[in-house]
């Protein structure tokens, strides 16, 4: 046995070695592995949470919210925290409109979770209930569920427009609307529950941009309702309506519906053969290339005209017809005869110039370019077919843009659905300006084409007589075409369509209406689409806030005598200079919107008119605010919506 | 006057207590602010939700789908275009 001194030394050395080992281990833990443990500790007591960014709002052209983001809630219940489980369960079930049995079943679990989402009104009375935990979640909200649904689209379950989203503008504009999510760190206890403490924000969420669409809510509702009624009354398979401002290319309303109630954006994505609606484009080529003399007649052939490989017929034949007669009564025979004077390249060139066979450029995903074959692919009857609107597939938006070019003195504009993009702080990032694509025909030819179209409605025997308004002249064309189903013409099925320029002088509105396979009553556009268009225009005139310039309308002579195109000295009332300028106001610099808050309605409107703005009034009394807000810049002619409130009661 | 040992101890004790009080006071104030902020946020969300709900109801009530059948029941109808009179704007030139 060793001496005590030796044993003591051994113990000392052992202790020293232990101490050194401890120091080394401490150094290893602190210096070498410190970061790892610190990260583990941080992960244990903190949690990084994503702060959702508010998705931008979609407005109509007057500032009416069409798609908004709203805070909703998921509800979690910790049964062990409830003070009176039976009573609380009943309250929860009542507030959240859940089956009491489901809630009671949930209370038997450790933690019950109801995804909802539930609105703030639903959860408000539960906020003070102990054991009820609310998790806020931003959700897209559409105040009018069916409003332009096919165009606006829907967001997916993840709240984004892409992926599982429902397409439409929500999808197309997703990167603009979505914003950038933020991040924050919150403290949590060992069970993972968050402490009630301020979160440390790492990055603030940035809200998405707001987008002002060109749609006019009231016109849209008029179009949707008219289309619904037409489909129901005529037992049609479906239909589309497009309304367009021909001077800016802004789409004011787009309605599409099938008989089963579904809404596809068929105005942009589905094509049809326009039939007689395309006759005006053959007339455009004939006038442009000077292939028809004023007053020149061709024979009506008794309503039956035999070509080498087909027979062309007219429903109501005339003995002889001018070009104006051919458009007025929609004569297939006369148009085929006239169009035979065109070279295929000329005929194709004019149709192509009007935008057929190409995308219009409207901001809509999956827009169809339609179909227009080049002359090298034509067969012998192609020229005759194209003159009367066959062998040509178009979308309603293409037709609206093409008729818009006739209304706009021959300049084709790119149609648009987006009027303005605003940053979250209200700064305007983009404002639509008319985008001329090309000059299709000269202003003189465009005016002659409008006169031809005016004859369809305003002259006796015109196929569009049933669309005529008493106080305003209309320029329009009817089209009844056989329907292609599964690649073949379906027996007894037709597409009735109507394109109108309102009013005929200085048109403010292009309306294209299409009804697929009307089965009840007549299938002719003259009896179906034409009267529906008239009804829509009457409603638009009667509506207060529709985007029509009534000052200009009031100055349009309703019964003005216009020289017929057929007469040798026909007067063409429109002479517009080139290069094209949409209107002089648009080229003026933007102006500041004056502060009219607190002013009486009449004074405020006067002040805004003096600055060159147009005004839409919401409410009455004194002005509460305007949209866009005062201090912002806007182009002269911009519509300012003023929101008025009743004046405070005097004591 | 010179500080003796016990005075120093008392001084540091008071300083420590003051520092602790300051920390706790700041934390309490921050918690109260956070709670007030959360309450305000909730209130705003509730009001926004209520506004959205009212907006929806107003829009439904104003829609043609609701108004037109009621108007028809009352014997009202949409005016024909002959019944709409637009008064020319002063100062504008007719074409």
The first-to-last residue Cα distance of chain B is: 104 Å
Secondary-structure element string of chain B: HH
> Which residues of chain A sit in consecutive blocks of at least 5 with pLDDT less than 50?
559-587
Q: Major sheet of chain B, described briefly?
A: none
In CATH, the homologous superfamily of the largest domain in chain A goes by the name DD-peptidase/beta-lactamase superfamily
Count every helix of chain B, treating DSSP H or I runs of 4 or more residues as helices.
2
Beta-strand content bin of chain B: under 5%
Proportion in helices of chain A: 25-40%
* Residues in helix, % of chain B: over 70%
In short:
With 651 residues, chain A is of the alpha+beta class. In chain A, 31% of the residues lie in helices and 24% in strands. In chain A, a hairpin with a 4-residue loop joins strand 9 (238-245) and strand 10.
Report on the structure:
The complex is a heterodimer of chains A (651) and B (95). Chain A has 4 domains: 4-32; 49-213, Penicillin-binding protein 2a (Domain 2), CATH 3.90.1310; 271-415 and 434-555, Beta-lactamase (3-Layer(aba) Sandwich); 587-645, Trypsin Inhibitor V, Chain A. Chain A is 31% helix and 24% strand. Chain A is built from 21 helices and 28 strands. In chain A, the strands form 9 sheets. In chain A, strands 2, 3, 4, 5, 8, 18 and 19 form a 7-stranded mixed beta sheet that branches. The longest helix of chain A has 29 residues, at 4-32. Chain A is elongated, with a radius of gyration of 34 Å. Chain B has 95 residues and is mainly alpha-helical. Chain B is 72% helix and 0% strand. Chain B starts with a helix and ends in a 22-residue tail after the last helix. Classes of the chains: A alpha+beta (651), B mainly alpha (95). Chains A and B meet through strand 3, helix 9, helix 18 and helix 19 of A and helix 1 and helix 2 of B.
């Amino acid at each position: 046995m060793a001496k005590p001194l030796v044993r003591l030394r051994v113990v000392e050395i052992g202790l020293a070695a232990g101490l050194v080992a401890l120091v080394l281990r401490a150094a290893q833990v602190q210096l070498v592995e410190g970061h790892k443990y610190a990260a583990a500790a941080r992960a244990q007591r903190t949690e990084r949470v994503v702060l959702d960014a508010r998705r931008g709002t979609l407005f109509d052209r007057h500032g009416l919210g069409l798609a908004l983001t709203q805070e909703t809630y998921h509800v979690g219940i910790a049964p062990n925290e409830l003070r009176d489980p039976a009573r609380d369960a009943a309250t929860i079930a009542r507030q959240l409109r859940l089956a009491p049995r489901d809630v009671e079943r949930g209370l038997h679990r450790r933690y019950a979770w109801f995804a909802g989402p539930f609105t703030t009104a639903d959860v408000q009375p539960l906020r003070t209930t102990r054991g009820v935990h609310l998790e806020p979640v931003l959700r897209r909200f559409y105040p009018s569920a069916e409003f332009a649904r096919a165009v606006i689209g829907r967001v997916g379950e993840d709240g984004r427009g892409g992926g599982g989203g429902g397409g439409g503008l929500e999808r197309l504009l997703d990167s603009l609307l979505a914003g950038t999510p933020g991040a924050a760190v919150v403290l949590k206890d060992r069970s993972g529950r968050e402490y009630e403490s301020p979160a440390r924000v790492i990055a603030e969420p940035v809200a998405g941009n707001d987008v002002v669409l060109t749609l006019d809510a009231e016109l849209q509702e008029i179009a949707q309702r008219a289309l619904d009624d037409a489909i129901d009354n005529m037992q049609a398979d479906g239909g589309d309506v497009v309304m367009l401002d021909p001077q800016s290319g802004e789409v004011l309303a787009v309605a599409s519906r099938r008989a089963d109630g579904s809404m596809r954006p068929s105005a942009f994505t589905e094509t049809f053969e326009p039939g007689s609606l395309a006759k005006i484009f053959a007339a455009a080529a004939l006038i442009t290339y000077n292939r028809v003399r004023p007053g020149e007649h061709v024979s009506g052939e008794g309503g039956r005209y035999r070509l080498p490989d087909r027979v062309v017929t007219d429903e109501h034949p005339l003995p002889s017809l001018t070009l104006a007669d051919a458009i007025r009564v929609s004569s297939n025979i006369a148009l085929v005869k006239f169009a035979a004077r065109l070279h295929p390249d000329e005929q194709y060139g004019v149709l192509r110039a009007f935008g057929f066979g190409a995308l219009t450029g409207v901001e809509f995903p999956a827009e169809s370019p339609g179909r227009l074959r080049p002359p090298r692919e034509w067969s012998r009857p192609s020229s005759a077919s194209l003159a009367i609107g066959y062998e040509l597939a178009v979308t309603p938006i293409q037709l609206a843009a093409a008729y818009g070019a006739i209304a706009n003195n021959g300049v084709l504009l790119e149609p648009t659905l987006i009027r303005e993009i605003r940053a979250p702080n209200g700064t305007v990032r983009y404002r639509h300006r008319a985008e001329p694509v090309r000059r299709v025909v000269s202003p003189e030819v465009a005016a002659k084409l409008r006169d031809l179209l005016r004859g369809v409605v305003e002259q006796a025997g015109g196929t569009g007589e049933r669309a005529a308004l008493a106080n305003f002249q209309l320029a329009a064309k009817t089209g009844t075409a056989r329907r292609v189903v599964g690649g073949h013409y379906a027996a007894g099925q037709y597409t009735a369509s109507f394109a109108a320029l309102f009013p005929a002088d200085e048109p403010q509105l292009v309306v294209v209406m299409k009804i697929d396979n009307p089965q009840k009553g007549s299938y002719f556009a003259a009896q179906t689409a034409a009267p529906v268009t008239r009804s829509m225009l009457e409603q638009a005139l009667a509506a207060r806030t529709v985007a029509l310039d009534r000052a200009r309308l009031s100055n349009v002579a309703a019964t003005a005598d216009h020289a017929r195109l057929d007469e040798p000295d026909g007067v063409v009332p429109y002479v517009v200079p080139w290069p094209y300028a949409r209107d002089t106001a648009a080229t003026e610099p933007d102006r500041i919107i004056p502060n009219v808050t607190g002013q009486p309605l009449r004074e405020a409107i006067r002040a805004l008119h003096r600055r060159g703005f147009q005004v839409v009034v919401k409410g009455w009394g004194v002005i509460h605010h305007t949209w866009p807000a005062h201090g912002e810049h806007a182009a002269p002619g911009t519509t300012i919506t003023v929101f008025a409130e009743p004046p405070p009661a005097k004591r | 006057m010179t500080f003796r040992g016990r005075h120093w101890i008392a001084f540091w004790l008071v300083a420590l207590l003051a520092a602790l009080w300051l920390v706790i006071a700041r934390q309490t104030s921050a918690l109260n602010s956070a709670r007030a902020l959360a309450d305000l946020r909730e209130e705003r969300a509730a009001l926004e939700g209520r506004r959205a709900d009212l907006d929806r109801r107003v829009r439904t009530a104003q829609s043609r789908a609701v108004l037109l059948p009621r108007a028809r029941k009352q014997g009202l109808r949409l005016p024909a275009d002959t019944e709409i009179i637009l008064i020319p704007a002063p100062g504008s030139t007719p074409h």
